[in-house]
Amino acid sequence: MTIIITGARGQVGQAIISRLHSAGHTVRAASAKPAELTVPAGAEVAELALDRPETFAAALAGARQVFLYPEPAGIHELIKTAEAEGVEHVVLLSSSSVLGPDAETDPLASHSLKVERALADSDLTSTFLRAGAFASNALGWAHVIGRSMPIQLAYPDAHLAVIHPDDIADVAIEALTGDSLSGRTLTLTGAESLTFREQLAILSAAIGRTIPVEQITRAEAERQLAEYMPAHMVGSLLTFWETASHGPDAIGDTTETLLGRPARTFRQWAHENAGAFTQH
Ligand SMILES: NC(=O)c1ccc[n+]([C@@H]2O[C@H](COP(=O)([O-])OP(=O)(O)OC[C@H]3O[C@@H](n4cnc5c(N)ncnc54)[C@H](OP(=O)(O)O)[C@@H]3O)[C@@H](O)[C@H]2O)c1
Fold it and tell me: Which CATH number belongs to the domain containing residue 66 in this structure?
């Protein structure tokens, strides 16, 4: 049985591919840019750009299980092709933002919500992994920390129960290869709520150097974020962090509650990735 992993260059995709392959499953790594992919020897590679339906049929041929990154642009064509090719089950990397009150209109949430709805209306069995913020979002600070500059945040006390991408991969693998999670909707988080300040204190300990934190205005944060993010996403993200400043984040499903093994901590992620914050 072939399992296809879309978004194969992504962190969750990479973790799923290497573990499934090591466990002896037939894995096809599907990416918009297959030439830039690194996969274990023997794993299949396919070109699949989720917004280019002409790439779907060849990539999905013979697959029964699909790990899907959320991209609404081609979702109806993707579902049609998957059904025609005999795909049985889709495990979607969705987002906990779909639970927000404005999910229909919020640019971050509606992206995943449209894909969930299209899958729910299809004949495919779907498992929705509604992930909270990834621990690996901290890599966005790497360049600044590497240059020993302060991290500037409009909402340094925003709480997030960040999840280690490997925990998402573990849950996805269970859903792709077992029966216990198939067809369920899961809200995935890490096991502890941490403010940005607390994340940065943990990162400081991991790299052996204090990382200064500087609070800036929302307007200044808007200007900074707009340099590498579409404007309509910037307001949405800042409002999310503002709301998250009101108190601890809710803890959702974790590898502990779903798979019976401890959730990886942000401290663990920070130690594994400390090198990314010192090599600049
Ligand atoms: N980050 C979060 O906090 C968070 C929280 C909840 C849900 N999510 C969802 O999870 C998905 C992935 O999140 P992410 O963006 O943080 O993960 P990511 O691991 O950075 O990967 C995202 C995608 O970008 C492509 N990609 C990977 N490396 C790339 C590179 N070097 N250059 C260009 N493209 C690259 C990959 O697709 P190809 O291999 O096909 O190019 C991959 O699907 C998103 O769709 C998001 O909605 C994220």
Answer: 3.40.50.720
